[in-house]
């Protein structure tokens, strides 16, 4: 079993839609969790950290469920510019393990 | 703020040739540094990480090696490249607590 797993998608949604991604992790000792955005042929960029109490940044909300060992990302009011691959990551202080990413395509 | 520099951006190398990719860091001292590889259409695979000068942890046995000769320098090397070494190589810095910052990556094609 992979340490961090994501549905690869693609998720094809119209502009304005709400879309949610989930990511599961197998290492219960993992302490830190993040969502990254990666555009085609570019490096991943940190989107947001994920906390048990939830973390909201504008249209984006991230949540951690330690009991079920998954993290989620909710995108409200999708924009064309949200089209990208979203990577979840989890780990300890010294290293992060990344999921393979979920592709999102937002269409007009 | 921290900046990760990587070069070159693109590299085409023949099978059996050596490789040296360099990563340097600005804006922080004593950073944890990481090398990841992303194969086409795949996720990020952690190759090596370093918590300080001369300290290298290898995550996956393979045809590559890493070195940390200076605090802000991290080098990925190979003596003889294989076709399977093709991929997008990314250097990252800072610890997991604060999330990683990535360099812009090197796209390596072994032919």
What can you tell me about this protein's structure?
The complex is a heterodimer of chains A (108) and B (111). In chain A, 0% of the residues lie in helices and 55% in strands. By secondary structure, chain A is mainly beta. In chain A, the strands form two sheets. In chain A, strands 2, 4, 5, 9, 10 and 11 form a six-stranded mixed β-sheet that branches. In chain A, strands 1-3-8-7-6 form a five-stranded antiparallel β-sheet, with no helix packed on it. Chain A is globular and about 40 Å long. The termini of chain A are far apart. The model of chain A has no long low-confidence stretch (mean pLDDT 92).
- Give a quick account of the main beta sheet of chain A: strands, pairing sense, barrel closure: 6 strands, mixed
Mean pLDDT of chain A: 92
User: Structural class of the helix and strand makeup of chain B?
Assistant: mainly beta
- Outline type of chain A: globular
Q: Strand-and-helix sequence of chain A, N→C?
A: EEEEEEEEEEE
Classify the secondary structure makeup of chain A into a structural class: mainly beta
- Our Rg estimate of chain B from Cα atoms comes to 13 Å
Q: What is the strand tally of chain A?
A: 11
Q: Secondary-structure element sequence of chain B?
A: EEEEEEEEEEE
User: How many helix segments of chain A?
Assistant: 0
Uncertain runs of chain A = none
What descriptors fit this protein?
heterodimer; A: 108 residues; mainly beta; 6-stranded mixed beta sheet; 5-stranded antiparallel beta sheet; 0% helix; 55% strand; globular; B: 111 residues; 7-stranded mixed beta sheet; 4-stranded antiparallel beta sheet
Strand and helix layout:
The complex is a heterodimer of chains A (108) and B (111).
Chain A: E1 4-6, E2 11-14, E3 19-25, E4 32-38, E5 45-50, E6 55-57, E7 60-65, E8 70-75, E9 84-91, E10 96-98, E11 102-107
Parallel strand pairs in A: 2-11
Antiparallel strand pairs in A: 1-3, 3-8, 4-5, 4-9, 6-7, 7-8, 9-10, 9-11
Chain B: E1 3-7, E2 10-13, E3 19-26, E4 33-38, E5 44-52, E6 55-58, E7 65-70, E8 73-78, E9 87-93, E10 101-102, E11 106-110
Parallel strand pairs in B: 2-11
Antiparallel strand pairs in B: 1-3, 3-8, 4-5, 4-9, 5-6, 7-8, 9-10, 9-11
């Amino acid at each position: 079993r992979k340490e961090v797993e994501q549905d690869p998608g693609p998720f094809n949604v119209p502009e304005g839609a709400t879309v949610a991604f989930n990511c599961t992790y197998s290492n219960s000792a993992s302490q830190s969790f993040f969502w990254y955005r990666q555009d085609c042929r570019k490096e991943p960029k940190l989107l947001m950290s994920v906390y048990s109490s939830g973390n909201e940044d504008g249209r984006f909300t991230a949540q951690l469920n330690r009991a079920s060992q998954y993290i989620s990302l909710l995108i409200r009011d999708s924009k064309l510019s949200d089209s990208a691959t979203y990577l979840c990551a989890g780990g300890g202080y010294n290293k992060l393990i990344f999921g393979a990413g979920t592709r999102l395509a937002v269409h007009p | 703020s921290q900046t990760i520099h990587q070069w070159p951006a693109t590299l085409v190398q023949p099978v059996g040739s050596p490789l040296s990719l360099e990563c340097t860091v600005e804006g922080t001292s004593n950073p944890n540094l990481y090398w990841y590889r992303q194969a086409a259409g795949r996720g990020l695979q952690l190759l090596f990480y370093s918590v300080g000068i001369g300290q290298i942890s290898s995550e996956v046995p393979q045809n590559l090696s890493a070195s940390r000769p200076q605090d802000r320098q991290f080098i990925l090397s190979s003596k003889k490249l294989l076709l399977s070494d093709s991929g997008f190589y990314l250097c990252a810095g800072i610890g997991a607590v604060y999330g990683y910052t990535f360099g812009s990556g090197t796209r390596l094609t072994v032919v």
